[in-house]
Amino acid sequence: MKEKIIILDTTLRDGEQALQASLNANEKMQIALALERMGVDIIEAGFPISSPGDFKSIQSISKVLKKSKICSLARCLFKDIDIAAQAMKYAQNFRIHLFLGTSNLHVSSKLKKNFNEIIDMATSSIIQAKRYTNDVEFSCEDAGRTSIDNLCSIIEAVIEAGATTVNIPDTVGYTTPTQFKNIIFSIFNRVKNIHKIIISVHCHNDLGMAVGNSISAVEAGARQIEGTMNGLGERAGNTALEEVIMALNVHRDVLNKYTNINLKEIYKTSKIVSQFCNMPISANKAIVGKNAFSHSSGIHQDGVLKNRENYEIIDPISIGLNHCKLNLTSRSGRAAVKHHMQKMGYRKNDYNLNELYVDFLKLADKKGQIFDYDLEALAFFKKQQNLREYFKLEYFDVQSKLSGLSVASIILMCGTEINIQKATTSNGPVDAIYQALNKATLYSIVLKKFHLVANGEGKDALGKVDIVVQYKSRNFHGIGLATDIIEASAQAMVNVLNYIWKSTQVDKELEKLCK
Ligand code: KIV
Ligand code: ZN
């Protein structure tokens, strides 16, 4: 009988922590739903004490999850635990995840305590968390650098106090697979009440060993793996879930393990996370990189044509990667668009067919032929762009010349009001249009990142602009997509302005709630 490995996804917590601009509630919701479709057992949706925004988004995610269990992080402090329970009170059942540093470094220089005090804090927090739920996970932060004696004694104490899962994080990605496996083996050999709980592992990738360490831990008896999609996370990131899941799957007969993951959802979920988090995936990334299933040398191409397995250990179709060449034009009907989306693995709830079809027709008129990446871009980037529509760019005209000034004129709808502006600059057409938009909204923002890429190939590509701006010491991310790169740049800024506008409304609402 194969044993199950529980998958805990922490993209929305550990992953989100490392982003340049935090995700908004809607983006978090889309990611949570994609993770649920992929079959993740537990979704760590955030750290509710950290911000009112995180609290609110955990609250809304806990209302909608049906199959995956929601989990929230809390320090070993009663106020954190109470807030975590409050944020998840609408969930059918939930997990509280407590963490506390256990290595000498963390205990003395970060927490300024002795080890007995650490054990007391951990056990009393578990007892507090148990008032809200039976499902309590305890993480020995920096376990990878904790002495095995201390690790075993705190684990025994937290199990006694009622923890149901004990997590062994290699917080700083310090260990090698053999070292990490030995830690897990020792825990199983030395902790007398270990059979009462699940041992989980949470590895960071500072030495590029997070996936290897997680698999080693499973060989030693761990039954839960924590990680993030595309390996997002602090510094070099966390265990990449798509990699560890496929490693467990490829070696299922040797490891004798299985997961609940619907492999066909992996590719799509990875894309959704990459797009919403504004974290591109490198071409040679295992499993989900653009080149993961492409063969360059003549010998390899010949071998694959004779038998795919000559050079592929995974069938790309098994992770939902369907290379379908589309042939859609402005004469294609709604049914054809729906059919192609289906062929690419998207379900009707993943996108809005009516909105997609309207955008598709506009783009098909401009471009002639539409490719699969165009459809995906329209369905997802546009969706992101359209989510926040207080400001709407009605018109622009930009003039730019060699060694001269650039001039931009715009008409921006601000709610129902028309705002006409003009700006002149020597910094080029994008700066001119950004200055005009700034004049219209009066937000005092700083552009921190501007990234323009071609979405697609050759002259058929769409311009995609990603920007990060700072407003009142918070970072906001925006996307613009258009055949014209100036329009794409302008739309990215309008997208950000809408996001800022929306967040100021949320802040006002929260202020009212907190009064
Ligand atoms: O890396 C870590 O130790 C963590 C804990 C909070 C589990 O993220
Ligand atoms: Zn972590």
TrEMBL record:
Among Gene3D superfamilies, the record links this protein to: 1.10.238.260, 3.30.160.270, Aldolase class I
A GO cellular component entry from the record: cytosol
Transmembrane feature ranges: none
SMART domains to which the protein is assigned, alphabetical: LeuA_dimer
Q: Where do the record's region annotations for Regulatory domain lie?
A: 392-515
Q: Which UniProt keywords apply?
A: Acyltransferase, Amino-acid biosynthesis, Branched-chain amino acid biosynthesis, Cytoplasm, Leucine biosynthesis, Manganese, Metal-binding, Plasmid, Transferase
Q: What is its EC number?
A: 2.3.3.13
Q: Does the record bear Kinase in its keywords? A: no
| Entries under SUPFAM superfamilies matching the protein | 2-isopropylmalate synthase LeuA, allosteric (dimerisation) domain, Aldolase
* Domain Pyruvate carboxyltransferase residues, every copy: 5-267
Q: Which InterPro entries match?
A: 2-IPM_HCS-like, 2-isopropylmalate_synth_dimer, AIPM/Hcit_synth_CS, Aldolase_TIM, LeuA/HCS_post-cat, LeuA_allosteric_dom_sf, LeuA_bact_synth, PYR_CT
Q: In which pathway does it act?
A: Amino-acid biosynthesis; L-leucine biosynthesis; L-leucine from 3-methyl-2-oxobutanoate: step 1/4
* Catalytic activity line of the entry: 3-methyl-2-oxobutanoate + acetyl-CoA + H2O = (2S)-2-isopropylmalate + CoA + H(+)
**Among the record's GO biological process terms, what is one?**
L-leucine biosynthetic process
Which cofactors? Mn(2+)
- State the Gene Ontology terms under molecular function: 2-isopropylmalate synthase activity; acetyl-CoA C-acetyltransferase activity; manganese ion binding
Q: Which residues bind Mn(2+)?
A: 14, 202, 204, 238
Function noted in UniProt: Catalyzes the condensation of the acetyl group of acetyl-CoA with 3-methyl-2-oxobutanoate (2-ketoisovalerate) to form 3-carboxy-3-hydroxy-4-methylpentanoate (2-isopropylmalate).
Q: Which family does it belong to?
A: Belongs to the alpha-IPM synthase/homocitrate synthase family. LeuA type 1 subfamily.
Q: What is this protein called?
A: 2-isopropylmalate synthase
Gene source species: Buchnera aphidicola (Cinara splendens)
